[in-house]
Amino acid sequence: MKSAPICLVKYCLFFLSFFFITQTLYADEVNVFFQQGVEYQKNGQTKEAIELYQKALQLNPDFAEAHYEIGWSYWVLGKWKDVVFHWRKAKKLGFEKEDFEDSFKIANARLKGKGLEVVRVAMGTSATAQFAAKKSNNEEGEMSEEPQESLSMQLVARFQQYNNKPESESDHYDTSIFSPKSVTFSLDGKKAYVNSLEGLATVVYDTTALQKIKVIMHRFNQNNRHLFIHAELFPSWATFLPTDEFPNPNTFYGKPVEFASSHNGRYLWVSYYRRHFDKNALYPSAIGLIDTETDTLVRVMNVGPIPKFMAVSPDNKYLATIHWGDNTVGLINIEGNDINSFHHEALINVGKPLDLKSLPEEVQSLPKEKIDRDKHCGSCLRGAVFTPDGHYLLVGMMHGGGIAIVDVEKKKYIGSVYGMKPTPRHLVLSNDGQTLYVSSNISGYVSSFSLPDIIDTILSGRHTIKPLQETKVGKGARTISLSKDEKLLFSAINYKNMMVALDPQTLKILLKIPVDSYPVGLAVSPDSKQVWITSQGKMSGGGNSVSVYSLTTSP
User: CA dist 120 to 166, 171, 501, 523, Å?
Assistant: First the structure.
């Protein structure tokens, strides 16, 4: 009889030991599934990530962070019902993270078929800030403080297509502005060029009079067939030319996305998202060449699918076209002044090229059904810069979260570096070529890196770098622009309807100012007296405007 309690105690101890061991193994398995899911999502393997998160949640339905992360995976696929379902679970489980509430609001709005509340900024809106005093060494080597400076910005003009009876004379109703994407200045700063994506036009403005002076249309037919001097195509592109259904593929409307300037400002390159008949952006797209002396199109060249960005080498030898649509980079030789001699020289795969014939199952019905190529884009290559010696090209990978390095001389992708926040979108290089600035879209950061360290890292076989500085500026950090004197770095914050000015050295935010909804592109004038910013969107769902802010700094 005395042995019964002892047996019971032993049994209980055995059961408890077994319980704790199995719980530990169970927790480890949950964590393995979760961590693998995170890695898959970082690499753009969204479906695989979801499967792993689901396995983790089957074992532990109360895993709040897994609900949060699977929500982001569904966000990538645009499945808003699933995003809201899992994020609601995460909230109930007490999950907290910076910007989670804002992201949740956006997901709820998207589920209801709405965008964020549309913001229209009043003319005259202004903001002022003080620069902190900076310490420096004087001629005697002693530390001294420089006088404080003030920074002021004010909305002084706007070109928009949402109000045909504006109250202010400086608020111009402009039917050419239809989902404006990007803006740049002529070399002397006297003209501003705006790519009106849905307007199929590049609109030219006088920056002194603040008036529209010309509209360059991107419509190609029999009347301007001479612009296609010869249809250069790499073999991998030629297989996708729609000659059966569209026997004249060079008859199309182009949707202009970004700019690149070459030949000391004489020429302005414009990339087209896709040909208008190419609903799913599977065929080669094109780029147009504008002569800024006459503001006319003088040539059109075929390039890869979805050339969202371009960059010109420092020696003006190459124009790099960054193909969002299939993980490739094109190098066009633009040496000399004869535009007829410009020609394709190389097509470089960045990692594994995206096989357009083997997209996910839900898009196998292409091209009859419209698919979202902003999601089905592989590494989603975006911003790019050449190193000062032109030897390397750096390309941001919005899916995968790193920067790809291309050896231009060898015409070969040599690897990627990591360490920046997820979704790196736009790259800008300092005047001395030492500092690389990076905006990270969804994560909402602006970061700075040592360019020599990046190159040294990849050449030494390493793949991870640390930022010099990084600052959270707000979700949707899109275009960044450095003033010519490098005193200020600006960023458009898409989800916050805001523009920020930062100190390039410290990346401290100096000033915030509201802008019309969905800001995406911006540029600082060469004299640092104006900042132009584009607010994208259709008639009923976005800013649909180009805003001009005066910029004043004073001691």
Answer: 12, 11, 20, 20
Quote the distance between the C-alpha of residue 2 and its chain's center.
75
**In whole angstroms, what is the distance from residue 209 CA to residue 205 CA?**
8
308 close to 322: Cβ distance less than 8 angstroms: yes
* Residues β-bridged to residue 25: none
pLDDT at 145: 58
Buried b / exposed e across 425-443, counting CB within 10 Å, b at 16+?
bbbbbbeeeebbbbbbbbb
Tokens of 523: 């540029």
429: which residues sit within 8 A by CB, 6+ positions away? 385, 388, 435, 436, 437, 451
- What angle, rounded to 10 degrees, do the helices at 80-92 and 100-111 form? 140
Instruction: Give the separation between CA 50 and CA 417, rounded to whole angstroms.
Output: 26
Higher pLDDT, 139 or 207: 207
Q: What gap in Å lies between CA 382 and CA 338, rounded to an integer?
A: 29
- Looking at residue 367, what is its pLDDT? 45
Q: What confidence category does residue 489 fall into, taking pLDDT thresholds of 50, 70 and 90?
A: very high
Q: Which amino acid is at 17?
A: S
d(CA 434, CA 420): 17
Element (H, E) at 512: strand 509-514
Q: Return the CATH class of domain 218-530.
A: mainly beta
**Cα-flanking dihedrals φ and ψ of residue 73, to 5°?**
-65, -45
Q: Per-residue pLDDT for 383 more than 60? A: yes
Could you give the strand order of the β-sheet that contains 435-440, starting from the edge strand earlier in sequence?
Answer: 424-429, 435-440, 445-450, 469-472
* Distance from C-alpha of 432 to C-alpha of 502, rounded to nearest angstrom: 19
Q: What is the C-alpha separation between 493 and 499, in angstroms, rounded?
A: 6
Within a 10 A sphere around the Cβ of 54, how many other Cβ atoms? 15
Tens of pLDDT, residues 98-157: 678 878 887 888 787 766 568 899 999 999 998 665 555 556 666 555 667 889 999 999
Query: pLDDT, tens digit, for every residue of 367-380?
Result: 445 677 877 888 99
> Over 195-245, what HEC string results?
EECCCCEEEEEECCCCEEEEEEECEECHHHHHHCCCCCCCHHHHCCCCCCC
Picking from 156, 127, 232, 180, the residue whose alpha carbon sits closest to that of residue 549 is 156
Q: Which tokens belong to 223? A: 């009347």
Q: Residue 346: which region, alpha, beta or left (left: phi > 0; alpha: psi -120 to 50)?
A: beta
Q: State the amino acid at position 340 in one-letter form.
A: N
pTM of the model: 0.81
| CATH 1.25.40.10 domain locations along the chain | 3-111
CA dist 186 and 191 (Å) reads 5
Q: For the domain 3-111, what is the CATH superfamily, name and number?
A: Tetratricopeptide repeat domain (1.25.40.10)
Q: Where in the chain is the domain with CATH 2.130.10.10?
A: 218-530
Beta bridge partners of 406: 393, 413
Distance CA 259, CA 239 (A): 28
Q: Tell me which DSSP letter residue 441 carries.
A: T
